[in-house]
Structure formats: C-alpha cells, structure tokens
Amino acid sequence: MKASDISATNDQLGFIERSSELIRKNEERSGRKLTASVITFGCQMNARDSEKLAGILVSAGFELLEDTEDADFVLYNTCTVRDNANQKLYGHLGEALSRKKKKPDMMVAVCGCLPQEPSALEKLKKSYSFVDLIFGTHNLYAFPEYLSRLLAGERHIYEIVDHTDNIVEDLPILRKYPFKSGVNIMFGCNNFCTYCIVPHVRGRERSRESADILDEIKRLSESGVKEVMLLGQNVNSYGNGIQGEISFPELLKRVCDVDGIERVRFMTSHPKDLSEELIQTIKSNDKICRHLHLPLQSGSTKVLKEMNRRYTKEQYTELALHIREEIPDIALTTDIMVGFPGETESDVNDTIDVINTVKYDNAFTFIYSKRMGTPAAVREDQVPEALVKESFDRVLKCVQENAREQSLRWQGLTLPALVEEVNTSLEGYVTGRLSNNMIVHFPGEPSLIGTIVPVRLDECRGFYYMGSITV
Ligand code: SAH
Ligand code: SF4
Ligand code: F3S
C-alpha cells in the first residue's frame, strides 16, 4: 500500500463517526460501555502520539481505562530503539493473549515504531497472530479508518507504509495533563547515526509550519496549558526544507510570547547544530526552562566519528562548558551509550573524562543494542558482553557521582515549581517540577495541581528534593 492511498484527515473524522455508530450498536447489544486502554513505550514523541490515539478512541465513544486488565480494546504504541523495548512488548503481548483466551471478543492492536521494522513486523504476524490490527508511524492518523474496520468485524488488519509526505493536523487529542503538553514541531530524522533505527522507523525529517505550531499552542493555552515541550529528534535543525521558515530560536521566542504560556521546554538538541543564537535566546528569556538535554553518546572522537555524530570530544566539551558559563543555573543532561562496536577501554575513559568535565546534572546511560538495518549492526568488532557490562558500571558510577554533587547546587534555594500531581506515597504531599527539570515533593493540597508556586528546597535526596511552599 502507498501512503497516497490513505484517506485524508477529513475522511478520518468521518471514520470516527462510523466507529461511534458501531460502538453505540455494540452497547445496545451488550448493555455496557466498551472500554479501551493505550499502553505507551518509548520517547516523548510516542507519548504525544498516544494522546492522539486516546483522543480518537474517546471521540469514537470508548471509555478509557488506565489498566489493560478489563479493556475490550488494548492498543500498544511501541518503541524499537533498543532490543529491550521489543522484549517488553512481547512480554505484554503474552499477557494479552492469556486474557484474550478468556475473553475472545477482546481486540488487540500494535502501532508505532516497532512494526516499521520489517523483521519485527514479520515476527508479530507470525508469532502473535492473535493481534487484530497493526499499523505504523507514517499512517497513525488513519487510525480512525482502521478502528472502524476492526469494529465492523474485520481481523488481521496489517497496514504499514514506508514513508509519508503528509503532516496531518486537527484530529482529536486527549491530553494526559490539562496544564502541560508536548507539541510536535518536526517529525523524523535525517542524521543517520550509525547505531540508530529512528530514521528508519520515523522517516525523513519534516518540520511543521511555524504558523500551525503557534496556532496549536494558542489553542492549548486557551484550554489551560501553561507549559509546552517542543518535540523533535533534532530541534536545532527546525525549519530546514521549508522556504523562508523561521529558525528554532525565533520559534522559541514566539512561543514564549503566546499569552498564558509560562514555561517552554524542548527536546532534543543535537550538539552539532546548537547555535550561539539558541544559547543567547535561552539566556535572555526566563520562560525557557533552565534545562538542556544535550546527548553526548560517547566522549571518544574516534567512536563519535564512527557513530556519524559529526562533533569531536573537544567541540562537545567546549560547547557544554560555554553553555554552563553563559547560563550558570541551567541543568545539563545527556544520553550516553556504552558498547558501540570497536569501543576500547581508552574510548570509555574519554567518555568518563567528558562526564567529569561537563558534570552532568543527570544522564541516561544505555548499553548499545544492535539494530537490524543499521551500519553498526553488521560490524564484526562487536564488544563482548562482559566488557560492556564492566564499562557500563564504570560510566554509571561516574554519572551518579556527578549528578549527586550537581543536585546539591540548589539546596536551600526557593524556586518556582509547577505542581504536577498528588504524591501517592506520602499523604498530604504534592509533587512539582522545577524549571531545571528536578522533582520536588512538598506538603500541599491537590488544588495546587497545575499552578506554579515558590518552593524552598530543604533537603536533597539524591536526585530529587523535599521542600516546603513559601507563600
Ligand atoms: N535524537 C536524539 C536521540 C533519540 S533516541 C539524539 O540524537 O540525541 C534516544 C537515545 O537512545 C539516544 O540518544 C541514544 O543514546 C539511545 N540509542 C539510540 N539507538 C540506540 C542503540 N542502538 N542502542 C542503545 N542506545 C541507543
Ligand atoms: Fe537517532 Fe541520531 Fe537521529 Fe538522534 S539524531 S534520532 S540518535 S539518528
Ligand atoms: Fe522509540 Fe520510536 Fe521514540 S523507536 S525512542 S518511540 S521515535
């Protein structure tokens, strides 16, 4: 099937109508509401996609459940960036099968990045043939159409396309939080880091028009959103490919100017494209959160070259230290990978050197995972597991030591926190997020949720704070 065969957005609204009718008939027959559950794996992009999928389900008339336990329809929105993400899905599908055996009417669907990978799709079709619907990332917006076919009784609907030129706007969305929201500014990736499957499963980079992004943010603000996170695999190349489009720093400024928006975050910044203009824009604009995620991957110039990251150890370090100097209260976080093919002890030492120099506020550390179809996967110098484990432990220890030290920087300060939720383990407490992305727990009423309040950071407990409200 070609991408051009998929019905356009307007038709999708018609398919939601059709699904509604089928659901109504089902309810009349069974005397109860149909329930659905969306389980999300992977990154912020997937989380945002799941809000779109949930929006469609609720518009069609499903009651949404947190848990899959009793759901009539379970939708898994998947990730395939590392093999453990795949394994997690297979575990969930095993459980789904045992429920489906007891409840044969239950419908199971898999979508997102994993089925875009041909060998994973084959495995799904062969070993998990009870899955009723499979679709990918490029035709996510056609979910209403697939849903209506499923509700009409069709099974084994497998709809995967390998690219799309479309950016579809204006389908219903159900946000997880009323006061904050992700906003896609671009899709896909053009960087082709040699270990990474994302460009293969998400396609080429496509930016949305800034006017559409700003319209969406205005509407979000009108509906109560105070904090937006601009999403893209490499936000610093925003606008490439659109004639006359504004730059990412300019987009940030315009987002900050939207009435009612109090905080702006973004993710992810590729170090090779991070401009001085961006640094100065963050520095001069208080609404832009004091948090920059700047993935390092490796501190070895040799490994970075083989990864196709297009920066050296020195260029990265200089950039990070310059950012720290310009914006001292910024939290710098990163992604680090250990065990890339050919990595030696001395390469790992380089990574540790960068961690100790930049002193990350936090870091995600990953063990390299072979992804089918990527250049690194066919290299013969894959690193033995035992060595990877040893290097990983060294890197993790270093990351944690630095992060612990960095976390202490804020001790005793009073900083604004956006209250996000009731703390479920401490009675009478709520949990808030600081501009630097740290979490603080403090005594407070649930009515504070969605507001920004000043909180004194009384006690650092490793990677989070215990605090008290100071109004
Ligand atoms: N676009 C972002 C990263 C998106 S993927 C960037 O370039 O920074 C998120 C993280 O997953 C990456 O930063 C990388 O550290 C990790 N990752 C990607 N592919 C991986 C692989 N094959 N094995 C292990 N980790 C991987
Ligand atoms: Fe993957 Fe590299 Fe693109 Fe990030 S920039 S999504 S790591 S290919
Ligand atoms: Fe995973 Fe797809 Fe995101 S592979 S990391 S969910 S883009």
How does this structure look, described?
This protein has helices at residues 9-30, 44-60, 83-102, 118-127, 143-151, 198-202, 210-222, 248-256, 276-283, 301-307, 313-326, 345-358, 385-407, and strands spanning 35-40, 63-64, 73-78, 107-112, 133-135, 157-159, 180-184, 186-187, 206-207, 227-231, 263-267, 291-293, 331-338, 362-367, 414-422, 429-434, 439-443, 452-461, 464-469. The longest helix has 23 residues, at 385-407. 41% of the residues are buried. Strands 2-1-3-4-5-6 form a six-stranded parallel beta sheet, with helices on both faces. A five-stranded mixed beta barrel has the order 15-16-17-19-18. It has a three-stranded parallel beta sheet with strand order 7-10-11, sandwiched between helices. The protein has four domains: 3-159, Cobalamin-binding domain (Rossmann fold); 182-278, Transcription Regulator spoIIAA (2-Layer Sandwich), CATH 3.30.750; 290-410, Transcription Regulator spoIIAA, CATH 3.30.750.200; 411-469, Nucleic acid-binding proteins (OB fold (Dihydrolipoamide Acetyltransferase, E2P)), CATH 2.40.50.140. It is built from 13 helices and 19 strands. With 471 residues, it is of the alpha/beta class. α1 packs parallel to α5 (143-151) and α8 (248-256) runs parallel beside α9 (276-283). It is globular. The structure holds S-adenosyl-L-homocysteine, iron/sulfur cluster and FE3-S4 cluster (F3S).
